[in-house]
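Reply to dn_fold:

You asked what the input looked like. This is it:
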Amino acid sequence: ADALEGLMASGKALNGSAAPGNASTPSLKQAPRDMWRRVIEYGLQRRPVDEIFHRALLWWLMAAGQVTLLPTLDSPVLEGFLRSAADPGAEAVQQTWSTMLRGPTGGADVVALCAQLSNLELLATFYVRRGRHVEAARAFAELSQRDAPQGVD
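and this is what came back:
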């Protein structure tokens, strides 16, 4: 919940309007400030788990520049997402999630988003936040091996 509060604090109000002919319908601008947080929390806590909702939310947060929030979320889908969401490649991600990756300034840089996931730093941070230090060390070790130039021990 603390991650979502941070997201809400950094977010901007959305423009909306009442339905034509129905003045009692609140617009998005009039909605309570924590409405989106409640919708997200409900989706994350819903059982059975809606994996599509979770994955869409995770991609949306990345596209919105909220990558650092990912390891803080309580989602049963998160570890798998951090491990393999970028595995199909940027083109496949773009085809599947293009609607979620569109923002007010246009489409997100899918190649950059996939590179962030492939980096393993988010996965290692996820493990550290959960006290899974051995797995975090393995992720960091794999990351260090990837970044090492060829022929260097």
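The beta strands are 102-103, 106-107.
Hope that clears it up.
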